[in-house]
Amino acid sequence: MATHKGSEGTVKVGSNAVAEVTGFSFDETAETIETTALSNSARSYVSDLVTFSGNIDCFWDETDTSGQGALTVGSSVTLNLYPEGATTGDTYYTGTAIVTSISRANAIGSMVTASFSFQGTNALTSATA
């Protein structure tokens, strides 16, 4: 059984790594359409449209112009999400996404952080580095 540490992950916008990533998550979902007929004894469904969405959490880095700087609200970007790293043979997920929100936080005794939320457009696909 293969297991991976969170510290192995990385995120890229196109071919550019996003700096200072502290975590990321993404969800893939499918809508369903009910196909139950009056004569059925149980509900039945078929799969319909699929989508993906998620978040990227970082220590804020204003000098990362091609990574964090490319993630502006409303921008459409190619995201490459590498849960196990970007070494040859590693599985990653890629898709076009729209940045829907950015949240920045600053507090005494902590680092300045940024969180980028995104909504996929079209399907998320799996690939190998």
Fraction of residues in H or I helices: under 10%
Sheet of most strands = 7 strands, antiparallel
Structural category: mainly beta
Enter the CATH topology name: Pnp Oxidase, Chain A
Uncertain parts? none
- Strand/helix succession: EEEEEEE
CATH architectural label: Roll
Task: Determine the strand fraction and express it as a percent band.
Answer: over 45%
Q: How many domains make up the coordinates?
A: 1
Average pLDDT taken over every residue: 95
Give the CATH H-level superfamily: Hcp1-like
The CATH class is identified as Mainly Beta
* Spatial shape: elongated
Q: How large is the count of helical segments? A: 0
Count of beta strands: 7
Query: Reading side by side through the largest sheet, how are the strands ordered?
Result: 2-1-5-6-7-4-3
Report the radius of gyration as a whole number of Å. 18 Å
Give the termini separation.
20 Å
Architecture overview:
This protein has strands at 10-13, 16-17, 21-34, 45-59, 76-82, 91-105, 113-128. The chain has 129 residues and is mainly β. It has a single domain, classed as Pnp Oxidase, Chain A (Roll), CATH 2.30.110.20. The chain has a seven-stranded antiparallel sheet, with no helix packed on it. It is elongated. The model has no long low-confidence stretch (mean pLDDT 95).
Summarize the structure.
The chain contains no helices and seven strands. The protein is mostly beta strands and 129 residues long.
Helix and strand layout, with pairings?
Blueprint: E1 10-13, E2 16-17, E3 21-34, E4 45-59, E5 76-82, E6 91-105, E7 113-128
